[in-house]
Amino acid sequence: MNINAKTGIAANDTAEMLVFYLYEENKKIHTALEPFDTSFNHAISELLKNKEFVAKLNNTCTLPTYGKFPSQRIMLVGLGKKEDITIDKIRQAAGTSVKTAQNMGIKKVTSIMDSMEISAQKTEEWYQAFTEGVVLGLYQFKKYKETKPEEEKEIKILTLLLSDKEVLPLAKEGIRRGQIIADAVSFARDLVNTPSQDKTPTILSNIAKNLAKERAITCKILSVPDLKKLNMGGILGIAQGSTQPPKFIILEYNPRNKNQDTIVIVGKGITFDSGGICLKPAKGMEQMKSDMSGGATVLGIFSVLAQLKVPQRVVGLIPCTENMPGGSAIKPGDIVKFHSGKTAEVANTDAEGRLILADALAYAEKFHPDAVVDFATLTGACVVALGNIATGMMGNNEELKNRIKIAGEKSWERVWELPLWEEYQELIKSDIADIKNTGGPGAGTITAACFLSKFTEKYPWVHLDIAGTSWSEKNNAYIQKGATGVGIMLILELLKNWKKFPKEK
């Protein structure tokens, strides 16, 4: 689909469908819509007056133009109350409008952006969000599904029409950035939605290598001999039960940029999680192909760093393995020794993510990072606590947590902080090792982060538990059932506004 912006008059536009956006409290027809209302004998005004169409968010109404205008149809899309408008609602309205048009078989659409009443200073931000909503709203994962030719429907051209030539460059930049970011999210969604048979650790590492070649990123893959030399007992221990060898993906962007901060992004890469010896229930286990969502987020971010001209040095670390049962699988009661030298008692083999992340977080030290952020589908407890609305956040640095919270609000990938108080650390003490990998029945999300904190003592660090936000059980305006690609928009927003990180005195 070609997305472009231009200046012009709605009544003269030749698209098959024109889309107008209305706020719930609007008592007067927008100027751009007036010629249509007049031509239709004020039918649109009557619809609003009689509340036959109420402009609640994502409500739609389609009307034919009966040959009175070059366009064949107009669509009204609700934005809800103007005082409550958010980036998320802009994305939703965009996704709703293009999905509705596409389902009708429309190929050429023009969205009348003036009807959204965008202030000049928010032009780039809103056009970016709108474009993200369009691309993500039309996302489909059809790799394994046969689609009949008559079922194929696609919008070929989407034009965002505005009247102010002064803000056209800002609108175009918003579209450019929005399309790049949405494509990265779609790439991550594809990876997560792919079945585990087609994304083993070896396949995932090959995807990373190909991505690095195309994007001028350096990529290094550590295999079993390398992991043994580095004493990465967490990754090797979880991999014991699988016939698939583990891999550790290391990506570097701007590796020689010494004048910029170094940000390390770590992503959990369990390409299938059976639970190991502590086997999960059969119901819903097919979704465990998504346990590498953190790794997919890292790959999605790296796919666009160069296009967005991010100035910082960014490192990506993805420990990859399956967690499978078998005669050689790690057992409850076993002791794991990590890259850092610390040891952990394995109380539950289904608490495997923290074991592989421990090695990756310890390895992050070699890059002398100014900040480290990890993404992991780490605990079901986080889903219980926060559902699929917010990502759980814990960390050891107030400045970094605050920056991530702000980036989360701006990107609408919101986070909610949980405490890492010293009392919780007591729950992961082991009688026979330095720590153990579970902390009992309560505070599961927090004790998992407590475990990770033992490997992040030398740098600012934030852990983001995306167990609830990485997967959706239903469709909405711009998120389809399945993988969400969460975290990419948050981190790219964080990097966009990054300022030199304060050094501890």
Outline the structure in words:
The chain is an alpha/beta fold and 505 residues long. It folds into 2 domains: 2-160, Leucine Aminopeptidase, subunit E, domain 1; 183-496, Zn peptidases (Aminopeptidase, 3-Layer(aba) Sandwich), CATH 3.40.630.10. 32% of the residues lie in helices and 20% in strands. It has 15 helices and 20 strands. It is elongated.
What share of residues is helical? 25-40%
Oligomer: single chain
Number of domains: 2
User: What is the overall shape?
Assistant: elongated
CATH superfamily placement of the largest domain: Zn peptidases
Low-confidence stretches: none
* Coarse structural class: alpha/beta
Brief synopsis:
With 505 residues, this protein is an alpha/beta fold. Helices cover 32% and strands 20% of the residues.
Key words describing this protein structure:
9-stranded mixed β-sheet, 6-stranded mixed β-sheet, alpha/beta, 32% helix, 2 domains
Per-chain topology:
Blueprint: E1 2-7, E2 17-22, H1 34-39, H2 43-49, E3 60-64, E4 73-78, H3 87-103, E5 108-112, H4 123-137, E6 157-162, H5 168-193, H6 201-215, E7 218-222, H7 224-229, H8 233-239, E8 247-253, E9 262-267, E10 269-273, H9 293-302, E11 313-323, E12 335-337, E13 343-345, H10 353-363, E14 371-376, H11 380-386, E15 391-395, H12 398-411, E16 415-417, H13 422-425, E17 435-436, H14 444-453, E18 461-465, E19 471-472, E20 482-483, H15 488-496
Parallel strand pairs: 1-6, 2-4, 2-5, 5-6, 9-11, 9-14, 10-11, 13-17, 14-18, 15-16
Antiparallel strand pairs: 3-4, 7-8, 8-11, 12-13, 15-18, 19-20
